[in-house]
Amino acid sequence: MAALRTMAAAMAAVALVGNVQATERPLPPCLDPFQPFVYSGCFGETGGNQLLPYRSQSPSDDMTVEKCVAECKGNGYRYAGLVYYGVCYCGQTVNGPQVDEGQCSFPCNGNKTEMCGGNSIFSVYQDPTFLPAEDVTIEDYDPLGCWTDDSSMGRALVYRQDKVDGASLTTEKCLQACRDGGFPFAGTEFGGECYCGVVIGNGTNAAPTGDCNMPCNGNSSQTCGGRSRLNLFVAHELLSLEPCGYEPPVSSSTTLPPSSTSSSTSSTYPPITSTTTTTSTSKTPATTTSSSACVSTTVVPPTCEWKCGKWCSSPLPDWDDDKTCKGAWSNCALQVASCFKHAGWPDVVDCFDFGDWCADISQYCNSKPSGGCRKSDFFGKKPPKGHPNKPPTTITITTTCKPTTTPPATTSKPPATTTTSSTTKCPIPTPTNICTQPSNPHYGYGPGKPVGGIEMPVVTCNDLADDWPAYPFKQYTDLDSRKCKKYPRSGCSNACADACKEQYEDCVDVYAEGCKTKPGRHRGREVTSKNYFEFAAGSASKAEKRSFRWNDSWESAVVKCKAQYVDCLKVNKGVTGAKKCPGFGEW
Ligand SMILES: *[C@@H]1O[C@H](CO)[C@@H](O)[C@H](O)[C@H]1NC(C)=O
Ligand SMILES: *[C@@H]1O[C@H](CO)[C@@H](O)[C@H](O)[C@H]1NC(C)=O
Ligand SMILES: *[C@@H]1O[C@H](CO)[C@@H](O)[C@H](O)[C@H]1NC(C)=O
Ligand SMILES: *[C@@H]1O[C@H](CO)[C@@H](O)[C@H](O)[C@H]1NC(C)=O
Fold first, then answer.
1. Which residues form the WSC domain (predicted)?
2. Ligand 3 atom 12, closest CA
3. Which one, of 37, 12, 41, lies nearest residue 100 by Cα?
């Protein structure tokens, strides 16, 4: 509990909402386990503002804190508030001042040991899975295109900003109003209407771009939706990192109990990989102690370490020596493909920086830092970018990890108050791809110099013990290992075909997109990237910068991406994965 980032005071802001019809088609309460809300204090309404705009339709005569919180969670809100013995409200911001705790003195109808505010006084609870919102600006809203707003099931975005002047509406004014209200979704419609929401209403569908054809009343060079059509925007920073139904990245069979105070990610370090394992005649028994010991790291709460657009890296395992440092590097390098896949244009270009950072870790591991090889030392020198938060608290537990036996955990630092989910994921494979980057002198690509600098995702040993021996291989394109595609030994060429396709898609989405002349922001730019797949063995010069000039037209970029794809399928046709990943943890 102590490790939870409790945002002490509730965020107060007055949303520009007048006449709210927020009760259209509410979503059901959240029935899945979720991190409990944290009590924020007692708040009062002033000046006729609604403290929280969404009023629950659930009866108040048996209301409890748990019921109200579940309803707010299910509907995507950050705050839950209870007033007058059990009327439940939800909202993104708390539009009123904190008042003396003693003013929240009415017991809840459904549980007399809980407080349900007072007369126009609210007991407010906060979902701890949101990021702090202070730094979010209208620049953080990404356009989602044109969407319908003509469903019989209610509006796409529920909160109409009727205090924003329709005659002078611009996109910026609408985004600002939604941002002030803490709303992740914003939309403009019919030239002069502005809507905000925490979720997109049921029945909202993508519409042809041409449907959004009405100029904004306040700036005719912008489009403000159309007839029953919204220009929709989202600020991911204002959405919960763990919405209802969220599953922690690694939980194996021991799922967290609903009332647990922490979710946990676990990941592990590589075994002692002695590089002298080439031609040994007498095989050492498979169960060497070196490959069975590993360290799992519990991250509280699981959050973003490095942020690129819509993507957040999964926190690297803690390290304190060369070996565990190498594990963190592997973990980092295996995350890069997921960045390219998920970050979204244009921030995806920053994924190159993330790859460089991974390469820096490998250099760091080998640099014999005077202060000792530690994650905190490295983070001090090269802090993660794009994210305002400090690295999350990590708790390290040493366990014995073998696929079949239950780990007799030798706990070195027992976590004080957190629940740890035991995991069968161990250790981290090195990011050595079984698939080959194709070469083509005509187009200029080859190993170490893929089109646009965008590498193939890694296909290597599966890091989940449960999958052995049926699926020894895995394509690392998702932070959640369970969501990555896994392959049997006979499926290696399919795995590489998938990796070729993934690279092709990233090539088109990132490189060709960057070569478009229209915005002209990236065309002609030089992208540099270090080789993050290579562990900088002993020397600091290994991770040299490679540079790629994005100087194709969109058409010729796509031609190159396609050519690389076709070549990629060709060279990887016969991949068998023979001798690779012979047993769990042996790689
Ligand atoms: C009533 O609330 C208290 C305090 O939150 C809780 O410990 C208890 O389990 C609740 N009782 C019921 C019946 O929900
Ligand atoms: C959305 O609408 C569909 C189709 O009418 C329905 O099946 C589904 O339950 C609705 N979802 C919610 C959350 O209301
Ligand atoms: C009108 O919108 C265009 C396009 O977004 C922008 O470049 C311009 O600065 C805006 N003009 C005013 C007066 O806000
Ligand atoms: C693009 O850049 C590369 C590397 O800088 C260069 O070799 C090539 O000639 C350039 N192509 C065009 C069309 O400018």
1. 36-128, 140-236
2. 219
3. 41
Whether ligand 1 lies within 6 angstroms of the CB of 114 is answered as yes
Reading the block at residue 122, the tokens are: 């609210």
Candidate of 515, 526, 545, 549 to mutate for ligand 4, largest count of ligand atoms within 8 Å of Cβ: 549
Instruction: Check: CB of residue 294 under 8 Å from CB of residue 328.
Output: no
Residue from 427, 466, 434, 378 nearest 272 by CA: 427
> Using H for helix, E for strand and C for coil, what is the string for 166-189?
HHHCCHHHHHHHHHHCCCCEEEEE
Distance from C-alpha of 125 to C-alpha of 358, rounded to nearest angstrom: 38
Taking the CA atoms of the chain, what radius of gyration do you get in angstroms? 26
Q: How many CA atoms lie within 13 A of 185 on its CB side?
A: 24
pTM > 0.90: yes or no: no
User: Which residue's C-alpha comes closest to atom 11 of ligand 2?
Assistant: 202
Q: Helix, strand or coil for residue 366?
A: helix
User: Per 3-state DSSP, what percentage of the chain is helix, strand, and coil (rounded to 5)?
Assistant: 25, 20, 55
- 261 — phi, psi (to 5°)? -95, 0
Cβ count within 10 A of residue 252: 15
CB 494 within 8 A of CB 508: no
406: CB partners within 8 A, 6+ apart: none
pLDDT of residue 233: 94
Nearest atom in ligand 3 to 172's CA: 14
What pLDDT is stored for residue 529 in this prediction?
87
Q: Domain map of the chain by residue range?
A: 7-126, 138-238, 294-398+428-587
Mean pLDDT by 10 residues, the chain (587 residues): 32 45 70 92 87 92 97 94 97 90 96 96 94 86 90 86 93 96 95 93 86 96 96 90 78 34 31 27 31 37 73 86 89 95 89 93 86 86 72 37 34 34 61 94 91 95 88 92 90 94 93 73 75 70 74 86 91 90 85
Cα torsion for 558, 562, 567, 572, to the nearest 10°?
120
* pLDDT score, position 150: 84
- Paired tokens of 532: 């993050």
CA 401 to chain CA centroid, nearest Å = 27
Distance (Å, whole) CA 179 – CA 53: 15
